[in-house]
Q: What sequence folds into this?
C-alpha cells in the first residue's frame, strides 16, 4: 500500500475518535477533567479550602480565545517549518 | 492534568518544586548549549515546543463526559530527552497558569513534574529500549508518545492521592477521572506523531538521523 494511504487512514482514525467523543458527550464542558478532579477532592475532604487563587481568571469566551491563541502559536511554527521544507525541495529539484 | 491553583498544601507544593528544579536547570543548560552550538537542532527544538503548545491546547470530550487534552511531550522526549522537555513544559504551564487559570503558580512544580519529567522519563526509557531491541520505527514512536501522555496523568493522580488520602482509595478515584479520559487522546497523539516523524524522515533526514540512525543505515 502506498504511504499516502497510511496517512489518510491515520487521519481518518483520528477524526473518528474525535467525532465519537463529541457524539457521546454533546454537552461536555470545556472546563474538563481538571475541574472534575476538583470535585473528587471536594468529596474526599469537604473542608479543604484552596489557600491560593489565580491572579487572573478569564471569562469563558476569553478562555477559549486564549486556548486558540496557544494552538495558533504552535501551529504557526509547524506550518512555517513545513513550508520552508517545500521551498527547499523546489529549489533542489530546480 | 493540571492540579488547580491552591489545591496542593504548601508542603507538597514546595516538595514537587524542589524535585523538579534540578531537571529544569539541567534542561536549561542543555537548551543553551543546543542554541549555541547546533543550528540544525534549533529547528527541532522550535518544533518540539510548538507541538506541546498545539496539543496541550486541544481539548477533546471523553467518554466520562469531561474534556481533557493531550500533552504533546513525546516528540521532544524522543529527540532531546527529559531535561529539555521539562523546560518546554514549564513554558507552556506558565502560559496556562497566568493567562488561562489552568493549573497555577503554587502547583507549577507538581505539574512540571508530571507533564515535563515523569511522563517523558518513562517514555524515554521505553524509547531507548525499543530502539535497542530494533522494533519498527512507527511502533516505537507510537508507544513512546502514548506512554508520555498516559504516565503524565497517572502521576497527577498519584500526586493528588498523596495529598488527599487514604492513598489507594483516592488514587482509584483520581485515576478514574484522569487516566481513562486520556486513553483515546493518547491514541490520537500517537498516530499524529507517527505520521509527522515519517514526514520528517523523508523531508529532512538530516534532522532525524541522529535519533533514528538504525533505519537510515538500513535504507542506505
A:
Amino acid at each position: 500500500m502506498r504511504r499516502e494511504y497510511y496517512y489518510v487512514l491515520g487521519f481518518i482514525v483520528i477524526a473518528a475518535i474525535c467525532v465519537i467523543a463529541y457524539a457521546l458527550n454533546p454537552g461536555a464542558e470545556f472546563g474538563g477533567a481538571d475541574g472534575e478532579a476538583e470535585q473528587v477532592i471536594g468529596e474526599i475532604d469537604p473542608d479543604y479550602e484552596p489557600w491560593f487563587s489565580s491572579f487572573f481568571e478569564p471569562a469563558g469566551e476569553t478562555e477559549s480565545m486564549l486556548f486558540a491563541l496557544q494552538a495558533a502559536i504552535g501551529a504557526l511554527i509547524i506550518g512555517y517549518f513545513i513550508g520552508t521544507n517545500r521551498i527547499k525541495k523546489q529549489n533542489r529539484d530546480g | 492534568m493540571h492540579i488547580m491553583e491552591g489545591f496542593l498544601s504548601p508542603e507538597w507544593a514546595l516538595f514537587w518544586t524542589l524535585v523538579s528544579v534540578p531537571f529544569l536547570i539541567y534542561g536549561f543548560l542543555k537548551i543553551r548549549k543546543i542554541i549555541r552550538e547546533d543550528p540544525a537542532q534549533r529547528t527541532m527544538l522550535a518544533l518540539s515546543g510548538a507541538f506541546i503548545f498545539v496539543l496541550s491546547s486541544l481539548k477533546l470530550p471523553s467518554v466520562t463526559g469531561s474534556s481533557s487534552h493531550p500533552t504533546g511531550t513525546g516528540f521532544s522526549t524522543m529527540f532531546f530527552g527529559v531535561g529539555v522537555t521539562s523546560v518546554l513544559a514549564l513554558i507552556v504551564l506558565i502560559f496556562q497558569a497566568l493567562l488561562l487559570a489552568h493549573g497555577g503558580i503554587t502547583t507549577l512544580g507538581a505539574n512540571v513534574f508530571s507533564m515535563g519529567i515523569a511522563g517523558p522519563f518513562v517514555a524515554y526509557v521505553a524509547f531507548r529500549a525499543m530502539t535497542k531491541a530494533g522494533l519498527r520505527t512507527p511502533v516505537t514512536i507510537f508507544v513512546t508518545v502514548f506512554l508520555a501522555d498516559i504516565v503524565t496523568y497517572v502521576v497527577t493522580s498519584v500526586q493528588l492521592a498523596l495529598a488527599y488520602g487514604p492513598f489507594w482509595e483516592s488514587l482509584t478515584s483520581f485515576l478514574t477521572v484522569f487516566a481513562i479520559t486520556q486513553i483515546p487522546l493518547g491514541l490520537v497523539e500517537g498516530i499524529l506523531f507517527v505520521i509527522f516523524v515519517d514526514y520528517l524522515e523523508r523531508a529532512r533526514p538530516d534532522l532525524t538521523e541522529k535519533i533514528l540512525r538504525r533505519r537510515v543505515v538500513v535504507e542506505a
The longest strand of chain B covers residues 60-61.
